[in-house]
Amino acid sequence: MCASVQAGKKEEMQRYRFNPITLMYEVYEGPRYLRYVRVVLGVAAVVALALLYFWLYTSVLGLDLPKTALLKKENARWQGKLAVMNRHLDLYEETLEAIEERDDEVYRSIFGLNAVPAEVKNSGFGGINRYEYLDKYGADPSLKQTLKRIDMLTKRTYVQSMALDEVYAISVNAGDMKSHIPSVPPLLPDNTQVHISSTFGGRFHPVLGYVKFHEGMDFATRVGYPVYATGDAVVEKVIFQFTGYGNEIVLDHGFGYKTRYAHLSGIDVAAGMTVHRGDRIGSVGNTGISTGPHLHYEVIYKGNRINPYHFLDMDMPTDEYRAMTERRRAEATPRRKSTNELLQGRGN
Question: H-type helices in 239-334, by residue range?
Fold first, then answer.
């Protein structure tokens, strides 16, 4: 009964048309294109529903698509790694800066070496964009910055390594440093014959008549009083003149130290000679701008005048000082004639 009812309903839903050729009523299905239209409309409906789903999922609910969520998760993981790497780089940079500061202010200062210039440490990172190749890969700016930091730290570490190698090479001969640094009076400290007539610092100039900074110490004594090298050195220059410092000698002790001996009456060394502490290099005089016989003595460190008083002991026993000069006289090898010897016709 139910089957016959359903069959009747199906027949009612179907349309029939009389076929004049077959003289029969046949089921009429309508134009063929209507079937394609139905398919297209079905596909369009599915697409519209899918777009509506994506819009609701992303815009209304604010959720990410599965692939987008996966990419964001991967990106966050790499950003985390970059953050950890940059924290390590911060630590390495702080450590390197401490080493650089200690090297410049302690090690290099001790051995008279100049600090490594900042432009040398950071050279090779200006001008050309060496990281341009990352742009075509769409690299994140943070990746480029991290790579740049790694390269700069690598270069600075290499430069600092070379600087420490230089310090090491000099420190091997550090035993010589003690004998090179000027550390004794430039003449026999006999207070019965020598006294300090002018100290380091500001003073009223006795000749020029106004306050002028005095860059050394003056030792007043008689003309011809022997002047000695205060440390092992090479004679940098010898100057004979009627003005200024008059006849003077400049010794280069190395390790950043130099000494000047001025207003001399005679000079016993020549430029380029090697001298040792206690070697006689000249005689006190009254040459140049001077109001009386005295020795003007300077200590120069890295181009700056410093107080010679901190490098000598005027209370040094005269016997000890004489023993030093006598020992040097005995050890001295034959050398070229001094200026005094040539002028006085001696040394034959």
Answer: 318-331
The kind and range of the H/E element at 282 are: strand 280-284
Chain mean position to CA 335: 44
> Mind giving me the DSSP string for 235-261?
EEEEE--SSTT-EEEEEEEETTEEEEE
Q: Which 3 state secondary structure label does DSSP give 214?
A: strand
Q: 131: part of which helix (H) or strand (E)?
A: none
Query: What CA–CA distance (Å, rounded) separates 307 from 182?
Result: 12
Q: Please calculate the CA angle 128-154-119 and round it to the nearest 5 degrees.
A: 55
Residue 56 DSSP label: I
DSSP code, position 122: T
Residue count (the chain) = 348
Question: 3-state DSSP: the chain helix, strand, coil percent, rounded to 5?
Answer: 45, 20, 35
| Rounded CA separation 212/189 (Å) | 27
Architecture of the structural domain at 184-344: Distorted Sandwich (2.70)
Residue 255: how many CB atoms within 10 A of its CB?
A: 19
Q: What pLDDT was estimated at residue 32?
A: 66
CB neighbours of residue 290 within 10 Å: 17
pTM of the predicted model over 0.85:
no
Domain-by-domain residue ranges, the chain? 14-60, 71-172, 184-344
Cα dihedral 35, 40, 46, 50, rounded to 10, equals: 180
- What would the pLDDT profile of 7-61 be if each residue is shown by its tens digit? 455 555 667 777 777 777 777 666 666 667 777 888 888 888 877 777 766 666 6
